[in-house]
Amino acid sequence: MTASAAPHNTIGTATGAHARPRPRWSAPPPVDESAVAALVHALSLPPLICRLLVARGYVAPEEAKRYLRPRLDQLHEPSAMLDLDRAVERLIRAVRGGETIMVHGDYDVDGICSTTIMVRALRELGATVVPFIPHRVTDGYDLSMAGVRAAIAAGAKVVVTCDCGTSAREPVGALCRAGIDVIVSDHHLPGGALPECLAVLNPKRDGCEYPDKNLAAVGIAFKLALAVTRAAGGNEAPVMAMLDLVALATIADIAPLRGENRVMVRYGLKMLAETRNFGLRALIRAAGMDGKTLNAGRVGFILAPRLNAVGRLGHALRGVELLMATSESEANGIARGLEELNRNRQEIDRATLADAREQLATIDLATTYGLVLAGEGWHPGVIGIVASRIVEETGRPAVLIALDADRHGKGSGRSIAAFDLHAALGSCAGHLVRFGGHRSAAGVTIERDHVAGFASAFNEVARALLTPEDLVPELRIDIELPLGEATGELEALLRHFEPFGIGNATPVLVSRGVRIASRPRVLKGDGLKVTLEQDGAAIDAIGWGMGWQAPSLGEGTMVDVAYRLERDDYRGEQTLQARLADIRR
């Protein structure tokens, strides 16, 4: 961390080459108090809650009500999506004509769930459907020639992609030349000209007037499945019942939880808790989440990685088989296998992160704003996870590249808020075989000889676009209040703002002049646990990744704390807890 990036008024700093930058606290801008008063009057809610609503842009009472009470009738009509009518007409013709349809997904949670939704919806209509997902190691990323060969071998007359295809011009062309109609359903940013095929369903494409551009691929697959079912006169209930899959994938893909995503995830989380899907139930049990509250955080950090593991270390088609299981015994067997894969994945993560940190120790972070790290023998299935850790620990966008013996490299990148990773890779395209993704996450394919040139070019782009301040994470404060006002009643009211995630962050509270009322404990995984006290009010607090601060936080230390208020489920008991975001003297 550069000296210019270090925040003031912090308790020490982490040590080592991979020290995590301390966040700068950002105070909320002043709100219109007359608008707050109007909401208090209209909604009969406490001023603090109404102030938070106004700060998030919900000023009019009707807007605030729509936010606090999302409804399915707020979803847009699928027909607003460009090319959707052509896709629906062709799929109905395939269903009625008995033609084979291949659904080609991607190997992450979004791709697995999207594929499952399309296959199940089409089979409900009586279609002959073959699911296909490429193998990450042998087939590569996106729709490739492996998918072309699979479609031809299956005798498919129609291919529907899920979470891929927007940049696959050559493979799509090969399918079309083979007499196969292609329907692309995807949400990745187009990197150039679109493939020429029957339909491209992607709200991000030029000319598409679909109102919500932030859908994950699973949202697009859901809309297509709903439109086909309606047009065929089928029963919508089985499609609506798959909102649990929509919620899982939308959260896992870190799609913004606003607009339609917020509505679908809010309903999907309720359904997930009582899901009838054998595979999801088995996944929940295997993760030890049975009977516990399933919020967006737990789905993203506990459930999703287990389903992701099969695409990272095994064959993601096994994930589709889990979600389409027709019995509890079948689902339990697959879920146990995924649990073992996830344990293996965690071990590989740790080894790869250790290697990456060794490379970081040789890099001057004062002059390096964009990181490219490459390693022999790194597993391409875990480098995305490790890239996320490197971003957290350095505050810099990072691309990790797994090099193989054939002079090729597969890379995965993650970014920070101030840096458009997809656009940056476009500026470095001359060094890459191909790339694709989003503003915050992307994948690349590169020749080994071009890695050094790419690293230099990527850093040049980062240095041109970023300032030292951009490299310090921003912690946006929502509310400042005495510790005694952080009550169970406030936590219950804040739950109406759920689901929390990108685009709808969990409110961050700040309490100043708080006393550490217990000897700090270091928990497994570098967690810090303390009791906070102020004017007779006390609350237990936990901060993951903060264990290194324990020696400087003796009992009686006076601190300012930034935290998120939550309920902790432990052995069937719920207790109020402060989840620490930062702590300062």
The gist of it:
This protein has 585 residues and is an alpha/beta fold. The chain is 39% helix and 19% strand.
Q: Tally the helices: what do you get?
A: 19
In the sheet with the most strands, the strands line up as 3-2-4-5-6
The figure for the number of domains is 3
* CATH hierarchy class name of the largest domain: Alpha Beta
Overview of the molecule:
The chain is an alpha/beta fold and 585 residues long. It has 3 domains: 73-340, inorganic pyrophosphatase (n-terminal core) (Alpha-Beta Complex); 363-471, Diaminopimelate Epimerase, Chain A, domain 1 (Roll), CATH 3.10.310.30; 477-585, OB fold (Dihydrolipoamide Acetyltransferase, E2P) (Beta Barrel). Helix content is 39%, strand content 19%. The chain has 19 helices and 19 strands. It has helices at 33-43, 47-55, 61-68, 84-97, 109-124, 145-154, 169-177, 217-231, 237-240, 243-252, 260-273, 278-286, 296-313, 317-323, 328-360, 383-394, 421-427, 451-465, 488-494; strands spanning 24-26, 100-104, 128-132, 158-162, 181-185, 199-201, 371-376, 398-403, 408-414, 434-437, 441-447, 474-476, 479-480, 509-516, 521-523, 527-534, 537-544, 558-570, 573-584. The strands form 4 sheets. It has a 5-stranded parallel beta sheet with strand order 3-2-4-5-6, with helices on both faces. Strand 2 (100-104), helix 5 and strand 3 (128-132) form a beta-alpha-beta unit. It is globular, with a radius of gyration of 24 Å. Residues 1-18 have low confidence and may be disordered.
